[in-house]
Amino acid sequence: MSLRTGRTARAGQYAALLCYLVFLAFPFLWLISTAFKPARELGSLHPTWIPRDPTLDNFRQAFDEQPLLGAAANSLTAAVCAAVIAVVIATPMAYVMARHRGRLSTSATGWVVISQAFPFVLVIIPLFLVLKNLHLINSLWGLILVYVVWSLPFALWMLAGYVRAVPPELEEAAAVDGAGKARILLSVTAPLLAPGIVATALFAFITAWNEFFFALVLLKTPEKQTLPVVLTHFLGAEGVADLGPLAAAAFLATLPSLVLFAVIQKRITGGLAAGAVKH
Fold first, then answer.
1. pTM for the complete prediction?
2. Which end of the chain has fewer CB atoms at under 10 Å, N or C?
C-alpha cells in the first residue's frame, strides 16, 4: 500500500513538474512561432502554433529598421564588465563575511536584504544626480557602475554561502604550512569556489543583459543604447507593436542568455561534483 502511495505521489510530482515546464516554455515557443510567421498569418483570426509559410523576412526587417548589432555589442560590454567586476569585488568580501562572524557579517547581511527591497524608481533620481556629478550620464561605464552596485549585494550573499560550504580545515592546514591569508584565498579557497563564482557571474551577466529601466534613463544617445531599450523602438507612436520584427529581435535577444546558461550549467554541475570528491 505504501509502495503504491509512493508511486502515486511521484507520478503527481512529475505531472506538476511537466505542467510547470509547459507554463515556462509557452511564451518562448510562441515567440519563436511569431518570429517566423509572415504578416498575413500574424493578422489571422485563427493563429496556429506552427507557421504555415515560415519566413525570415521578420529578421531582415528587424535588422534593417534598428541597429540591433550595435545595441547587442553595448549590452554585451555592459553585462560582461559588470559580471567580472562584481565577482572580483564580491569574492574577498564574501570570504571575510563568511569566515569572520560578527558585526561586519550582520551588517552585510542586513545590507543585502535592505538593498534588494528598494524599487528601481525610488533610487533613480539620486542615482542620476550622482552620475551627473561624476560626468557618467550617457556613458556605458556609468551604466556598468550601476549594474555592479545593484548586483553586488546578492552576489556577496550568494558567494558567502559557497564559502561557508568549504571546510575550514583545509585553510587551517594551509596556514600551518605557512600560507598567508591572500595565498589561502587564491590557492585553496578560490578553486573550490569555482562553481559558485561561475554561478554568481552568470547571475550578474543575465541581470545586466536583461535590464531595461536604468539603461532607458541613463543612456540618451542612440548608438549607446542597449538591446532591451532598442526593442522598444518596434512600438509605434500609438503603442501598436510591429509584431513580426519585434518577435524576431526579441528571440535573438534571448539566445545569448539561454546558450550561456546551457553551456555553463554543465560546468557548474561538474564543479560541484568534483568539489564533493575533494572534500
1. 0.80
2. N
